[in-house]
Amino acid sequence: MAKTILIIDDSVPLGKLIKSHLEPDNVRVKCAHSGEAGLALAASLRPSLIVLDIEMPRPDGFDVCRRLKADPVTADIPVLFLTANPMVSEKIKAFDLGAVDYITKPFKVVEFRARIRAALRARHQSEAVTIVDGLTGLWNRSYLTLHLPSYISLAKRSGNPLACIVVKIDHYEALVTKHGDIAAGNVVRSTAHILHSQCRAEDVVCRYDECKFAMLLAGANRAAAALLAERLRADLERQLSAQSGLRRRLTCSFGVADTRVTDEPALVEQADLALRNMRQVAGNCVLIAPDHKHRKQAAA
């Protein structure tokens, strides 16, 4: 998939020139010609890299960078400054604000493209090490913690709901005790594959802990998420036992919440709480978090 680069520069011709230089490298280039437009586009696009001019009408590039890094939606996007100012003091200020590189104009095209590729590669390698689960290849809990505020913020701006499903492999401790860590790990991998294969491209599936997964469903409420959870429950019950070869029944349970329950980062915890609040249930079920938030608002 092509990476997206956002150019924030008040010079329209320069934006077009940079775009022509970078498109052969299989990247998508978007341009914003003011600081405010750049901030809005960065929040909606969440590009892989931002190339930012310093000398723009207010807000200038330094102010834009400061605001990008202060917003959890855009804080993790690397910023590369591109400016005509070669002063060391300006470079120091840029790096102190969190920039990953500082390129002065005029630049050599070959070097410019190489430094863009290096910035993209560094981000990809950093993310791969820290936010991908080694066993399943899914996003891990660190990714979820880092990006959940962004997904909630986007849901608020669009006026659409965001649902969360937490999935737990039933009786996992007994599985480990009887069959060992390797067999249990194979069940975790199979569960991850089934969950990921049943989701839309825009959904997020993460390994939440040893035997749990968390799913974020954009544009879905609890009712829609519960329908998906029920379908996944049946698929997992049917497929896991056959794939594991363990001659035992393997099932999963599901906790469901949405932004009607809470619009804070506690969304995942609410789905997990619904799952942990099982009473006299042997597993293989779907449980939905109650609408506490709106109940409190109605009572106020």
Description:
The chain is an alpha/beta fold and 300 residues long. The protein folds into two domains: 3-131, 3-Layer(aba) Sandwich (Rossmann fold), CATH 3.40.50; 141-299, Alpha-Beta Plaits (2-Layer Sandwich). Helices cover 50% and strands 19% of the residues. It has ten helices and ten strands. A five-stranded parallel β-sheet has the order 2-1-3-4-5, sandwiched between helices. It has a five-stranded mixed β-sheet with strand order 7-8-6-9-10, sandwiched between helices. It is elongated. Residues 295-300 have low confidence and may be disordered.
Layout: helices, strands, pairs:
Layout: E1 3-8, H1 12-22, E2 27-32, H2 35-45, E3 49-52, H3 61-70, E4 79-83, H4 88-96, E5 101-104, H5 109-131, H6 141-158, E6 162-169, H7 172-197, E7 204-209, E8 212-218, H8 222-244, E9 252-258, H9 267-276, E10 286-288, H10 292-299
Parallel strand pairs: 1-2, 1-3, 3-4, 4-5, 9-10
Antiparallel strand pairs: 6-8, 6-9, 7-8
What would you say about this model in short?
With 300 residues, this protein is an alpha/beta fold.
Output the keywords.
single chain; 300 residues; alpha/beta; Rossmann fold; Alpha-Beta Plaits; 2 domains; five-stranded parallel β-sheet; five-stranded mixed β-sheet; 50% helix; elongated; disordered C terminus
Q: What is the CATH homologous superfamily assignment of the largest domain?
A: Reverse transcriptase/Diguanylate cyclase domain
User: Helicity range of the residues?
Assistant: 40-55%
Main sheet specs: 5 strands, parallel
Number of folding domains? Answer: 2
The chain-level mean pLDDT equals 87
Tell me the strand order in the biggest sheet: 2-1-3-4-5
Number of continuous helical runs: 10
Structural class: alpha/beta
Strand-and-helix sequence, N→C? EHEHEHEHEHHEHEEHEHEH
What is the CA-CA span between the terminal residues? 48 Å
Radius of gyration: 23 Å
- Strand residue content: 15-25%
User: What name is given to the CATH topology of the largest domain?
Assistant: Alpha-Beta Plaits
**Overall form:** elongated
Total beta strand runs = 10
Q: Which runs of at least 5 residues are low in confidence (pLDDT < 50)?
A: 295-300
What is the highest CATH level, the class of the largest domain? Alpha Beta
The appropriate CATH architecture of the largest domain is 2-Layer Sandwich
